[in-house]
Specification:
Blueprint: H1 9-20, H2 28-36, H3 41-64, H4 71-79, H5 81-111, H6 120-140, H7 142-149, H8 152-167, H9 184-194, H10 201-204, H11 214-244, H12 255-264, H13 266-300, H14 320-336, H15 339-366, H16 383-396, H17 401-429
């Protein structure tokens, strides 16, 4: 029985928008402005350009490799078990470091509203309640987790739309003048962290098998969703810069609330702060609901060599060990890292996955697979996947030496693990 193709351009676009807009945009305007000032929009446009190219690659691969697993499935199908193993690990790393980054952003935001959140003990207690609270909810029942996730979209969009709709009246045009044009190196360095606000679009393409006329619908939906997100992000950046001017970079903990304070007064500050915090909490809830199931599936399929992670709770019928591992990792990293550092690690992990996707698209185009008659193909042949590969490698080169060494070390450790697993499996087969 085949899936019904009922999803149109607007439905697919809405799904992508919902997934991409998360916690990053609530704190990034100040961080980006600190380096680029009024020219910050250049970094947004660049990130949007990269995402459009990568999503085109995802769409083409999804037309051929129709099994479940997304990035993992595409890369493993293209390059084998080893590449699939690395991809599965990177997906999990990108997710829990991203959640840890957002958790730090939440306490930073709440700290501007409730000074107690500036204390390390209060932050630690909050991280415990956040990760293990949602972990418990998702262990005792999936429906309870899904119930909370349903309100995420409204929570994340409401504060942003309020600022966009009402904030423009307090914009000073003089605050938007570019004092200088940023160099490509500066844009690249800032794009590495800004990319955190753009990741996740590929999850929205999981509906590809249910899309009407995919050859036309998918590229239209990708373009519409990314353009919509870009407009929202750029408007937020312009209004923030236009209202606060050079002082924007001083409010790196809660910039949008400071904008709201200027536009609406103390009530606006409170509303935006609470709205942003709830939105971010909702985003983490959604990840704790979905990502442990990736760990569970990987363990069940022997991709991750820890069989215990593939076990199901006898009473609640949920992947409780995978959930426990995920929330423990999220909590641990939230304790030891801050938003900016964790966001960069999450973005870099995602970019490595996207690099694999670009390479997989090149390999697919070079192969003789012909079962894509009703699917989508990236226009221009090899041009887009090659350009996306080069751009991603260039972005990754902007990582600090310490982080490059860290990623190389992690990959070497994972490679050793993979070889050990293979050797053990061969001995057991004998």
């Amino acid at each position: 029985m085949k899936l019904k193709r009922e999803v149109g351009v607007l439905g697919l676009s809405a799904n992508i928008i919902n997934i991409i807009i998360g916690g990053g945009i609530f704190v990034l305007p100040a961080i980006i402005a600190a380096s680029l000032g009024a020219a910050s929009i250049a970094a947004y446009i660049f990130c949007g350009f990269v995402i459009i190219m990568v999503m085109g690659c995802f769409a083409e691969l999804g037309s051929v490799y129709t099994g479940t697993g997304g990035s993992y499935n595409y890369i493993e199908s293209s390059f084998g078990n080893y590449a699939g193993f690395l991809t599965a690990i990177l997906i999990v790393v990108a997710s829990f470091t991203g959640d840890a980054a957002v958790a730090n952003a939440i306490v930073d935001i709440l700290g501007t509203f409730l000074p107690v959140f500036k204390d390390s003990w209060a932050q630690s207690l909050f991280f415990i309640l956040l990760f293990f609270g949602f972990g418990y909810i998702n262990i005792i029942g999936l429906k309870k987790g899904v119930g909370f996730v349903k309100i995420i979209t409204v929570l994340k969009l409401a504060p942003l739309l309020l600022i966009i709709i009402f904030g423009y009246t307090d914009v000073s045009i003089s605050n938007l003048y570019w004092e200088s044009t940023p160099s490509t190196a500066e844009i690249g360095e800032m794009s590495l962290i800004l990319f955190f606000a753009f990741v996740g679009a590929e999850k929205g393409l999981s509906l590809s098998g249910e899309v009407k006329n995919p050859k036309k619908t998918i590229p239209k939906a990708i373009a519409l969703s990314i353009i919509t997100i870009l407009i929202i992000y750029i408007l937020i950046q312009l209004i923030s810069q236009g209202v606060l001017g050079e002082t924007l970079s001083n409010f790196d903990k809660n910039p949008l609330a400071e904008v709201a304070n200027t536009v609406f007064g103390p009530v606006g500050f409170t509303v935006i702060t609470i709205g942003a915090a709830l939105s971010m909490i909702g985003s983490i809830s959604s990840k704790i609901l979905s990502m442990p199931r990736v760990v569970f599936a990987a363990a069940k399929n022997d991709v991750i060599p820890i069989k215990k992670l593939g076990t199901i709770h006898k009473k609640y019928a949920t992947p409780y060990m995978a959930i426990l591992l995920y929330v423990c990792l999220g909590f641990s990293f939230s304790i030891i890292g801050g938003f900016k550092e964790l966001a960069i690690i999450s973005s870099a992990s995602t970019l490595l996955i996207y690099l694999g996707i670009s390479f997989a698209t090149i390999k697919l185009k070079a192969s003789k697979l012909k079962n894509t008659t009703d699917g989508f193909k990236v226009p221009g042949g090899y041009i887009i996947p090659i350009i996306s590969s080069v751009v991603i490698l260039w972005l990754l080169s902007k990582l600090s030496q310490e982080k490059i060494i860290l990623f190389i070390s992690v990959i070497l450790v994972l490679s050793t693990m993979f070889l050990v697993i293979k050797l053990i499996s061969k001995k057991q087969d004998k």
